[in-house]
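Weekly sync, protein design subgroup
Attendees: M.S., D.O., the rotation student, P.L. (late)

Item 1: inverse folding check
M.S. brought a backbone from last month's batch and wanted to see whether the design step gives back something sensible before we order anything. D.O. pointed out we never logged the input encoding, so this time it goes straight into the notes. Structure tokens as presented (327 positions):
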């Protein structure tokens, strides 16, 4: 008898395949990143991310309601301010666009979803860096984390359930935890962007937030050559009080994701970033890839590598496809 081993037996029918699938993607695993632009009366398309827009405060509320009713697990909000300055003061201002939009969403969808806020200065500074600069133009880590602490309190006050520091400054999680605890927000959670790489795949995001960046972020974001460092960063964030940790980007860093997931005793997130979205959308536009199959395969791979939750610009679409699949 040849062959004696026949793994194909379990692939024979859809029902068998469904029975033995190790990994699944459910709408609740998906978090939708959303952009809100100060002063906009209409949504503005982002050309390098077809289908994604900078929302007005009104269109943001509608998009949030739609995503929540599609079943997504949460929303991650980014602000695009009208004015930028050296210290990113719009980030801590309760009347700043991100904080106003958070209160809009807290009122509109509130506890029916998980409201997350990007806690970083790059969208708000005129130099586009994630931190404050010293007199020589270098990042001032320790002054920056104090501002992150203030920003986190402003976001929690506006109604964010989860604070998401993405600036890769040393000690950022600890300072944010202290600031929240000292102001009555001991129950506000922190999702730490622990292993965030200095990646070319953030290209389209620069357009999404009208980034002013000159130069690069290599003195604070991780070198793509390093894997072990990601585990160290995650350990430090956990010691400082992170409730969840994140690896970003996703597809080119699945090994890193696996490494962090193996070490972590808290939920692990992965961020399928703007460039990952743009690549697939561009190929779909040319008729070279099938959107739904390709997206769901990429999400399944990210889950298989160890992600509990996934931030993805397809969150609402994928939640709808998955919902239809189940019926
Ligand atoms: C920083 C931040 C960035 C992204 C999320 N948070 C940009 C960067 O670090 O350069 C990128 C997300 C994406 O590319 O989809 N606030």
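Designed sequence read out in the meeting:
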């Amino acid at each position: 008898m040849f062959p004696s081993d026949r793994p194909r037996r379990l692939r024979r029918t859809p029902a068998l395949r469904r029975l033995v699938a190790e990994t699944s993607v459910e709408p609740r695993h998906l978090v939708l990143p959303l952009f809100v632009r100060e002063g906009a009366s209409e949504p503005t398309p982002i050309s390098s991310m077809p289908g994604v827009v900078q929302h007005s405060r009104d269109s943001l509320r509608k998009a949030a309601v739609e995503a929540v009713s599609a079943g997504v697990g949460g929303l991650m909000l980014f602000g695009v301010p009208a004015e930028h300055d050296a210290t990113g003061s719009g980030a801590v201002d309760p009347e700043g666009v991100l904080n106003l939009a958070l209160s809009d969403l807290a009122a509109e969808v509130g506890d029916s979803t998980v409201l997350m806020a990007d806690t970083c200065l790059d969208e708000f500074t005129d130099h586009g860096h994630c931190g404050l600069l010293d007199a020589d133009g270098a990042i001032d880590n320790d002054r920056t984390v104090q501002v992150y602490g203030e920003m986190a309190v402003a976001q929690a006050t506006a109604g964010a359930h989860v604070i998401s520091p993405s600036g890769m400054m040393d000690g950022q999680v600890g300072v944010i935890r202290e600031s929240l605890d000292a102001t009555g927000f001991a129950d506000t959670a922190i999702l730490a962007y622990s292993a965030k790489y200095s990646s070319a795949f953030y290209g389209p995001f620069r357009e999404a937030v009208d980034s002013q960046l000159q130069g690069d972020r290599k003195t604070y974001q991780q070198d793509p050559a390093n894997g072990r460092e990601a585990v160290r960063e995650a350990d430090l964030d956990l010691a400082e009080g992170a409730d969840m940790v994140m690896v970003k980007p996703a597809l080119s860093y699945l090994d890193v994701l696996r490494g962090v997931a193996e070490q972590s005793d808290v939920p692990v997130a992965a961020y399928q970033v703007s460039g990952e979205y743009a690549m697939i959308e561009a190929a779909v536009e040319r008729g070279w890839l099938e959107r739904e199959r390709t997206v769901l395969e990429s999400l399944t791979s990210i889950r298989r590598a160890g992600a509990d939750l996934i931030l993805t610009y397809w969150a609402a679409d994928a939640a709808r496809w998955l919902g239809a699949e189940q019926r």
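Discussion: The radius of gyration is 20 Å. The longest strand covers residues 30-37.
Action: P.L. to compare against the previous round before Friday.
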